[in-house]
Amino acid sequence: MSSVPQHIAIIMDGNGRWAKQRGLPRALGHRAGTENIRRIVQECKAQGVTYLTLYAFSTENWNRPGPEVQALMTILGEFIDRETRDLHREGVRIRHLGNVAGLSPQLQQKVRYALDLTQHNTALTLAVAFNYGGRADVVQAVRQLVAEGVPAEAITEEQISDHLYTRGMPDPDLIVRTAGEFRLSNFLIWQAAYAEYYSSPVFWPDFGAEELRQAIAAYGQRERRYGALPEGARS
What we know:
Layout: E1 7-11, H1 15-21, H2 26-35, H3 37-47, E2 51-58, H4 66-89, E3 92-97, H5 105-118, E4 124-132, H6 134-147, H7 157-161, E5 174-177, E6 196-199, H8 209-220
Parallel strand pairs: 1-2, 1-5, 2-4, 3-4, 5-6
Helix pairs in contact: 1-2, 2-4, 4-5
């Protein structure tokens, strides 16, 4: 196994607690978390990671207080405005995972702009899961297959994978969750079937290059068996 994962997926947790520790509004924690994305992208490129997926806003996050949801929408739009051209110059391809229908027309336009501008870049793929839910991802994939006329008995795992939001991307090798939590929280539940997991106690706004290197080092110590026995243990 390579000591560096090809695809890292991160559940960016702890923004609100980071803000609370400092006596700040939760929105400022989310803003600090967004500003952290750039240094993680840079470290992934330096380490040779080619796919980075960030869990930014789940389908369940709509249940949060209205002002916080609106702040998250505003922050995403600001991130696209501020970072897209620089990411493009650095060869980063941006992908969106999730349903854009729930976003405002203005935000949908910004998302499409970022996707179109960076679609041919190859240095790193940055996938942002926004208005994303793992179960909804599987449901929409099956519905697409049914709409295409595929008989139920003919549906395969490969076909479902090819209809998920992550189609064309490898499954994550390593899933990192910050702030000491150990839940997937409906994130890439199909794609994560054989991913390695790493939990960091550090809140996301403070999760920097050194913390990412620690996660990659821990991954390098794992042996991925995919349900099989290790070499030499078959008897």
